[in-house]
Amino acid sequence: MTAILPGQEVPTRTAQKLRQVHTITDRFGMLNTYLIDDGSLVVVDPRSSLNGRLILHYVERFLKRSPSDIDLIVLTSQETNQSGGIETLRSYCTAPVAALARTRGRTSSTNDRRPAGNGDGGTLPIPLAFRAGELFSLDALLTFTNPHLRQVSIWLHDVGGLPRHEDWRVIATGGAARGHFCLYNPFSWELIGGAAMSTTEGGMPILHASGDPRGQQETLRVLRDLQIYYLYPGQGKPLLAHNAAAQIRLDW
């Protein structure tokens, strides 16, 4: 512990923000869609037309907001066809769709890995372990056969922030070849696990296996180094715990 001498300025801590994530589920398969409210609205994994309608109803009925306040749609997986949810939402808003860039940015210069959008995300204090995501091996074998991928206009990079929502940072997982990533907010201590993560009936969060075991081990190490109080899986019930990251397990 570092002592503070008389008259020395006490270092300020990062102020915690209120929780920003709302959960919308289809109530059948427990496939979750998330709505981030940090002033504007971000939809994470719109999934089906049903989920899209539930989001619109939630925005208008419970948040008392307009669907036009949705300024970004984020896909944490490039495997699952989410065209239905995207089309439902975009009939009420003009939000662009964002997905993980994968190898698009790996052959570019370091400057090309900056966060998409107009904001400068480099000023956000991110732990060293969090920046270790740059070591992940990404695969370019995924073909653009799913129609929802043709609607993607923003390509996100590992460690970069969401455009216009720079507090939310991308963590590419060991399944990044399939476009899997998590979103982490170090100010509200929230992690959206997306398609890479689910919870069991007992509430244990599971990080799903991928074709890159070494990368998935690295993902687990990175996640466990983060301060997470609220963990939101792609499937299953959210976990609220003082140290939710310590409960994450690998599923082989």
Detailed description of the structure:
The protein has 252 residues and is α/β, with parallel strands linked by helices. It has one domain (21-105, 130-251): Metallo-beta-lactamase, Chain A (4-Layer Sandwich). The chain has three helices and 14 strands. The chain has helices at residues 49-61, 83-90, 213-224; strands at 21-25, 32-37, 41-44, 70-74, 97-100, 152-156, 161-162, 165-172, 181-185, 190-199, 205-208, 230-235, 239-240, 249-251. The strands form two sheets. Strands 7, 8, 9, 10, 11, 12, 13 and 14 form an eight-stranded mixed beta sheet that branches. Helix 1 (49-61) packs parallel to helix 2 (83-90). The longest helix has 13 residues, at 49-61. The protein is globular, with a radius of gyration of 18 Å.
Give the topology.
Blueprint: E1 21-25, E2 32-37, E3 41-44, H1 49-61, E4 70-74, H2 83-90, E5 97-100, E6 152-156, E7 161-162, E8 165-172, E9 181-185, E10 190-199, E11 205-208, H3 213-224, E12 230-235, E13 239-240, E14 249-251
Helix pairs in contact: 1-2
